[in-house]
């Protein structure tokens, strides 16, 4: 499933290499590094991919203070769904994407800054 809602674009990739390639492709089309996010079920993997591709991890700026603090007490699956929703996706989309992350895939999200 690939989403291209007006708020954000998302693509599921099979592995870190494909995620880095997707980030590079998005950057070549005009997205800035701070507009591209990567998510993997393993938080260390998310961090490594974000660093290698010059993308971002979803943080307090995107989630807000309340959700960032709440994530300290959530399961990783709940945390990932909250992060995906914070980038403009529905609960159903977040659930679908989180299940893909459970399978070891990587989610790349590009979001234009809202005026």
UniProtKB/TrEMBL annotation:
InterPro entries, sorted: GSP17M-like_dom
Every General stress protein 17M-like domain range: 11-104
Protein name (Swiss-Prot/TrEMBL): General stress protein
Species, as recorded: Paenibacillus lemnae
Lineage summary: Bacteria, Bacillati, Bacillota, Bacilli, Bacillales
